[in-house]
Predict the 3D structure of the following.
Amino acid sequence: MTAVVDVGRVAPGRHTILRRTLRSRTGVIGAALVGLVVLAALASLLGVLPHDAVTQVPAQRLRGPSGEHWFGTDQFGRDVFARAAGGAASSLLVAVVAVAIATAVGTAAGVVAGFFGGWSSRVVLGVTNVLFAFPPLLLALALASAFDRTWLTVAAAIATVYTPIFVRVARGPVLALREAEFVQAATVLGFSPLRTLARHVLPNIAPILIVQVTLSLSWAVLTEASLSFLGLGTPPPAPSLGAMVLEARVLVNVAWWSMAAPGVVIVALVVGLNLLGDGLRDALDPRGGGNS
Amino acid sequence: MILRGTLGHPLVRRLLEALFTLAGVAVLVFVMLRAIPGDQITATLGTEAAALTPAQRAALETYYGLDQPLVVQFWTWLGSVLTGNLGASERSGRSVLEMTANSLPITLELAVLSLVVGLVLGVGAAMLSASRPDSARDAAGQAVALAGLSVPAFLLGSALLAVAARFLGYNPNAEQFAPLVADPALNLQQMLMPALVLGFGLAAPIMRTARSALLETRTLDFVRTARGKGVPPRRLQVRHVLRGALVPILTMTGLQFGYLLGGAVVVEQIFSVPGIGRQVLIGIQQKEYAVVQSTVLVIAVTFVLVNLATDLLYRVVDPRVRAT
């Protein structure tokens, strides 16, 4: 599998990236898995699933998977598929918001630190080092426990953990770009730093950021699920994948599907995001080709 | 001039950086302590705090130093932390220092065992993959790495425990936790499943790094020379290729220590291992904020020191780093 290499372009255009990603096997499988989970989550949000996530039907408790209940029912007779889909929706909501905050704040700080250097760089790197000094899950846990728990504070806690990664990812290439001739030319021509950053620097780090966003989404989903497993994630009554696995620990001997269903959804989503990230990285690799 | 020269030395700079980071960690932990809804008084008295008269409340605030400016409170807190006073659990009356002295070694034992699992699994899968790139073998190795990245510890742990208890009737973790010195046989059995779960997650980044390092080392001249002079393939893989790829593999392993400390919270909870991760979690559940903050501080400091030690070790192991 050899992809066409665009010689002389720093970053391939958006359409090229999409085409190349979809040409690689990993990229397609990844996109399909993520698409499936997102579809189920959307269906749950729009309320178009045959069952909802909260209605209890005691007569139908602990039924195995069937045509009626695709993933079976739980100890209250609730539809496990609907709960898993709802859990995926809340996991995705937290993950997307967290990564959006981390991307915006981290990239801005990283670009400023890299482009302007000096004290701004020292402050940003100092804060980054401090945040990196905490094991990620522990920092998220400590932050989430320090504030009143809503889905937004959980997202903010996760965002804080992943912001330093975006600082590092953005700062490195900006350091190199600052010295590039076309950036120096823009400065010499008298463009404001803001315009230079927006027109010449950001577009060139965008591809790296896209890959990072995809991979960070997979970590954020895992972190959110781990937090809710520990009882510190999205608060009830919203269904949550981590909390479903926690509840299933006492049920699993009589109802294996109660643990398998949220497990399959988490793993499918995270595997999908990882494969999509790998596919994007291969597509964006200026060396082209390499799709293993 | 001498001072300037000393400060410029990479080793000194690295130490100063670690010191600054530790200071920042202390500030952040202190701020988190203050951000908690309610204060020390509410945390101690719970709902009874509402019944306090203003005068009683003021007296308590003076007692806890809450009437002082934040900066003063910070210095007081830092001073007591530095002298080993990490606060105490309101519920059990035990000092956090004593609790940590019991729990930290358990987590470190778990971390070491997980590292062994992660290295064996990760490097093993990488050697399998790298021995024939783009083959079915390679795909199998890469699938292991992807699974390690994607299956969360809480899911793998819960499933493993359920399967072992149900089908094998094996659950050493149901018994009272046995310290390593008291009952090594039971202790290692109780550590087995937690270490497998944590090590499996660790294997993924190790495998990916090791695979590319092995593939790169294979193309180097000294490997070709060794092959040319007739070193048998198996010996070539281990003595030459693996040895040459060791530095990036060990770096990646060192970087994962934070993952181990964080993952320990989840795994210790599932398998009822009384390590430092569980200490944090129980503190959070029982709203013992002094315990939570001090333990988080201890973990972060441990993490910074381990990273520093890894960096310093490098200078011993790799002559190229020492030269800079």
Q: What stands out?
A: The domain at 14-284 of chain A is CATH 1.10.3720.10 (MetI-like fold). Chain A has one domain: 14-284.
